[in-house]
Amino acid sequence: MSGVEINTLNERTNLQEVSLNLPSKEREDLQANFYVLKAQESVKSQYTYLPIISLSNRYMRYHYDERNLPNLPFVIPIDPTYQNTFGLSVCFTLFDSLATYRERESAYLNAMAANFEYIYLKDSQRRELVIAKESLKSAKEKIKWADSSYQSASIAYSYAKEKFNV
Question: pLDDT higher for 58 or 73?
Answer without folding.
Answer: 58
